[in-house]
């Protein structure tokens, strides 16, 4: 059985026996995860059935073996067999995605690295996927962020521009088979690699779109403290270690709505590149040169997560962080 599932069952049982114990159990598990350097190998849905397609098997191996036997990155190249809409292109599954990714690259990368739209695309992928947890019957990476009215929710402020652009991608490429959920997740991957240093990540397509707005209350908020954030992510099958790695995506981030008087302030000094300096700057920064979210500072200084945060902030942080983040990003 999945580790996170066991944890949740454990926590639920204890909570019934002793009200308030659920949080304690989650914290103990999270601390163990840190000590062991563990990341979640949780499987969900079809992946649990044991009857897998070839792609399902690859995804399962990546999730469970990490950077071992199956490389979560991609090293291949691809030449489309024809123009978009040609019969040669229509009969090749990858072809439409070549055109989607090419247009995204033009929008998400410039001479300096990733653009505002590229950074927005990374956050957008997270906000579509993370509006879900193991107790949700729907939600997740299903395109509902842009197929419903979710974008008007306060936690999604700042995604208006990338959301509008992504809807134009959908209008252009949906007639050739590209779904909204896949476009959004591909955008997060292209946005990441558009930031120099950003890992090149395999993209999978085939998600099912849903126009039903995702359940509320599943996304993290900047005012949350560390235990609340850890609980929130454990319910999404991420360990505390995974969370520390994932939130490093704030290496490519600006804020506009947490403090509108400092709109455009970045969360590290070089938001156009993908490096580990976000960790050290959050740990030691004065919240003037860069903007430090309360939630990031909380994770940087909380007993369970501060050790790993400091490791990523250290001199070998870049090499240690990148492989972890590649794997974690996969689990959305
Ligand atoms: C602890 C959990 C997290 C919290 C509380 C949080 C919160 C925030 C907030 C408040 C902003 C600024 C929004 C604005 O005012 O415009 C932001 C930006 C951003 N976040 Fe997070 N976030 C979290 C985790 C993540 C994760 C896991 C990812 C991706 C894997 C991510 C990716 C981004 C990106 C790329 C931006 C920059 C967007 C831009 O520059 O337009 N965040 N986040």
Can you describe this structure?
This protein has 15 helices and four strands. With 332 residues, the chain is mostly helical. Among the domains are: 122 residues, Peroxidase, domain 1 (Orthogonal Bundle); 105 residues, Orthogonal Bundle (Peroxidase, domain 2), CATH 1.10.420. Strands 1-2 form a two-stranded antiparallel sheet. Strand 1 and strand 2 form a beta hairpin. Helix 2 packs across helix 10. The longest helix has 16 residues. It starts with a helix and ends with a helix. The N terminus and C terminus are likely disordered. The structure holds protoporphyrin IX containing FE. Protoporphyrin IX containing FE binds next to helix 6 and strand 3. GO terms for molecular function: heme binding; metal ion binding; peroxidase activity.
């Amino acid at each position: 059985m999945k580790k996170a599932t066991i944890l949740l069952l454990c926590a639920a049982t204890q909570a019934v026996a002793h009200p308030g114990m659920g949080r304690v159990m989650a914290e103990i598990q999270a601390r163990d995860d840190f000590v062991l350097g563990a990341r979640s190998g949780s499987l969900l849905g079809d992946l649990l059935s044991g009857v897998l397609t070839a792609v399902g098997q690859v995804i399962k191996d990546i999730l469970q073996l990490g950077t071992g036997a199956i490389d979560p990155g991609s090293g291949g190249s691809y030449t489309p067999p024809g123009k978009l809409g040609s019969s040669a292109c229509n009969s090749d599954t990858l072809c439409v995605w070549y055109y989607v990714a090419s247009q995204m690259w033009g929008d998400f990368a410039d001479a300096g690295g990733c653009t505002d739209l590229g950074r927005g695309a990374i956050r957008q992928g997270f906000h579509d996927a993370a509006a879900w947890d193991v107790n949700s019957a729907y939600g997740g990476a299903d395109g509902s962020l842009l197929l419903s009215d979710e974008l008007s929710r306060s936690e999604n402020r700042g995604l208006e521009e990338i959301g509008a652009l992504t809807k134009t991608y959908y209008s252009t490429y949906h007639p050739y088979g590209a779904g909204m959920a896949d476009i959004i997740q591909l955008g997060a991957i292209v946005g990441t690699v558009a930031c120099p240093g950003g890992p090149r990540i395999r993209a999978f397509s085939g998600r099912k779109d849903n126009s039903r707005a995702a359940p509320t209350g599943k996304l993290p908020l900047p005012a949350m403290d560390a235990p609340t954030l850890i609980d929130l992510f454990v319910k999404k099958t991420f360990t505390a270690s995974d969370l520390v790695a994932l939130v490093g995506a704030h290496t490519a981030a600006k804020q506009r709505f947490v403090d509108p008087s400092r709109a455009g302030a970045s969360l590290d000094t070089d938001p156009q590149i993908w490096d580990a300096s976000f960790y050290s700057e959050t740990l030691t920064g004065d919240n003037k040169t860069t903007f430090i979210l309360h939630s990031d500072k909380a994770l940087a200084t909380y007993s369970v997560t501060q050790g790993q945060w400091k490791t990523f902030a250290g001199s070998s942080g870049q090499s240690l962080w990148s492989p972890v983040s590649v794997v974690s990003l996969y689990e959305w």
